[in-house]
Amino acid sequence: MTLTGHYFTLRQHFARLVAPGLPSNLTRWQQPGRDQHGLPMRLSGALAHASERELLIVLHGLGGSIASRYMARALQAALARGVSCLLLNARGAGDSSGNIAHAGLIDDLGHALASESLRGYERVYLFGYSMGGHVALRYSSHAPDPRVQSVVALCSPLDLAANMRAFDEALVNPYRPYVLGGLAAQFARYAEGGRAPISVERARRIRRIFDWDRDVVAPVFGFESPWAYYERCSAANTLESLEVPALYVGAKHDPMIPYDTVSPVLRRGNDKLSVIWCESGGHLAFPARFSLGGPAELSLEAQCLSWLQHPTRP
Fold first, then answer.
1. What confidence tens digit (pLDDT) does each residue in 3-59 have?
2. Distance between CA atoms of 203 and 252, rounded to whole angstroms?
3. Cys-Cys crosslink for 191: which of 42, 196, 254, 286, Cβ 3.0 to 4.6 Å?
4. Low pLDDT (below 70) residues in the chain
C-alpha cells in the first residue's frame, strides 16, 4: 500500500459527501423476524421495482447503511439496465432493528430472500461493498437461495483475523474513527433494549476492531472469543464451497483491506471465482476509466452488474 491508496480513498469519500443521495421515490421495504435469541427484530431497506424477473440485492460496508452514498451508484446502475434493486440494511443499520450485525451474519440475507415481497423474482444477483461483499460471498458458500445467480464483492475482506490485525496496527489510519463511530451509533440503538453487554459510553470509547469484536460481537453472539468468531465466520474458510459464479474486485493499494491480507486467500483458486485487481485506486475508489474487461466508459457498478448477468472468466 502507498499514499496513492489513501489519496483515492479520501478523494472518493469527500466526493461522495456532495454526490446525490438516494431518490425519494423508493419503496420502503421491511421484513419482520427473530434474532438468534428468538426475540423480535426487523430488517429494512429500500426497493426500486424495474423488472418482474431480475433483482439486484446490494449490501453496504461495516458501520454503514443504505444511506451510504456509494449505495446510490449501485441503484442507478440497476435501474439503467432495467433490473429491480433492493438496498438492504444489515441488522441494526438504518431502520433495521432488534440487534447488531457481524461480518459473517448470513442468516438475514436468507431471511430477506424468503420474504413474500421478493418471492416473485426469478434471478437474483448479490453485490456487496467491502464487508457486504464478505457476507455475500459467505452466503453463496452455504446453500444459497436457488434463484441467486452470481455475486460480486468489491474491496472485501476475506480473512477476518488478518484484516483486523492490519486495520488495528496501521500507523496511519484515518478510517478507524469513522468505522467505529458508525458501529457505536448502531450499538446505541441496540442498547435501548437493555440486552447490551457493555454500556454505550464504553462502546463509544472503543478504538480497535479487536476490542469491538471482544467486547460486543463475541458476547452478543455467543462466540468464546474474537478468534473463534474469526475462525467460524471468515469467508476465506468457505470460498472453496462457492455454489455460484463470483467476482472479486480489489485495489492493490487499498488502505482498509490491504492486498496482502486478501491475495493469499484468492491464490488458493476456485473454478467459480474470478479476480480482477486494479493497480491503483483505494478502498471502494477506482480510477474513472477502470475496466473489468468491457467498456471503460461505464461506471464500475454498471460493469459489475453486466458481469453478474453474464458471468465470465476474465
1. 777 656 656 655 565 566 788 789 999 999 888 778 888 999 999 999 999 999 999
2. 32
3. 196
4. 1-2, 6-20, 296, 313-314
Its domain, for residue 122, covers 3-173+235-309
What pLDDT, on a 0 to 100 scale, did the predictor assign at position 14?
57
* Cα 231 to Cα 212: distance, rounded to the nearest angstrom: 16
Output the pLDDT for position 286: 93
Q: How far apart are CA 114 and CA 145, in angstroms?
A: 8
Q: Is residue 242 part of a domain?
A: yes
Sort 202 into a burial class: Cβ within 10 Å, 0-12 / 13-18 / 19+. middle
Angle between helices 259-266 and 160-169 (to 10 degrees): 170
Q: Which residues contact 39 (CB under 8 A, 6 or more apart)?
A: 98, 99, 195
Q: Is the separation of the CB atoms in 274 and 314 below 8 Å?
A: yes
pLDDT for res 38? 84
For residue 23, the tally of other CB atoms under 10 A from its CB is 12
Query: What is the value of pTM for the model shown?
Result: 0.94
Find where cell 424495474 sits: 50
For residue 169, being part of any structural domain is answered with: yes
Asked if residue 250 is part of any domain, the answer here is yes
Number of domains in the chain: 1
